[in-house]
């Protein structure tokens, strides 16, 4: 492999056509490559049957495909499937397939680890090692489709809610969204994509202006600055006044309703006073609140809120005219919380 050869999994058809011409192949080979990588999900060059044998062999020698491989698969009774995927450099990420009445969503990781340091999350315990490329994010969707194809299904929605902070890997994330939407790949509507963030305010404004109407899901988890700072260090850089302003701009610019994710922690952020504070914070623009039962993480001291209290919280928010749901718990008998499976395997290796 030549050092300057490109990451073909992260390239558009146009970029692949240009590169093919540069190495002496017909330009149309680039479009063929893109289509076979994603529409056909070819695991290797050998599977691109529209190419002659010599081209498949020379490409494999020149630019090996850095496909993800499954190191561990956990299957829950409800159909939830958690994958521990190995990257070409030996790092690992998690990808989760979630069953819904409309089909399957796939929860995609954007980084190896995370630097946000949220005090309730397993993903950041080991810190961030590196960003994922656009191709590594897209390959998670391909692998999910490979598994779902055996069930007569395919990915219906993509949620950038796995390991990592997507907006901290902004350029690769945006390219991933373009590739995911491309008619020669998965042709997934932007409206069937959710991007989650802990609240990187400048990047929220940038994303609003990208003309990609994805759903923005903001990890809020607290209705006041002191409480949110206790849970999420990012609040020191971007307090709630700035975050809510960015969310309002996102909704007005894209026409999309913003979702606020709210983790329910027993005795921490789940009182009816907290619910009233939340209503006061978000009542004046179109939004949805998603209450999330907490999946315990051994290193963090929190407990999940009793379901009766969660329902009381929900009722108060709804009574004030704000859409509010409780996230259905899926995959409870496997390593359900984001980052748990990867962290456990990393600790074993250590």
Automatic annotation (TrEMBL):
InterPro entries: Aldolase_TIM, Methyltransferase_A, RlmN_N, RNA_MTrfase_RlmN, rRNA_lsu_MTrfase_RlmN/Cfr, rSAM, rSAM_sf. [4Fe-4S] cluster binds at residues 114, 118, 121. S-adenosyl-L-methionine binds at residues 164-165, 196, 219-221, 295. GO terms for cellular component: cytoplasm. It is found in: Cytoplasm. Keywords: 4Fe-4S, Cytoplasm, Disulfide bond, Iron, Iron-sulfur, Metal-binding, Methyltransferase, rRNA processing, S-adenosyl-L-methionine, Transferase, tRNA processing. Binds 1 [4Fe-4S] cluster. The cluster is coordinated with 3 cysteines and an exchangeable S-adenosyl-L-methionine. Residues 100-333 form the Radical SAM core domain. Belongs to the radical SAM superfamily. RlmN family. Specifically methylates position 2 of adenine 2503 in 23S rRNA and position 2 of adenine 37 in tRNAs. This is Probable dual-specificity RNA methyltransferase RlmN.
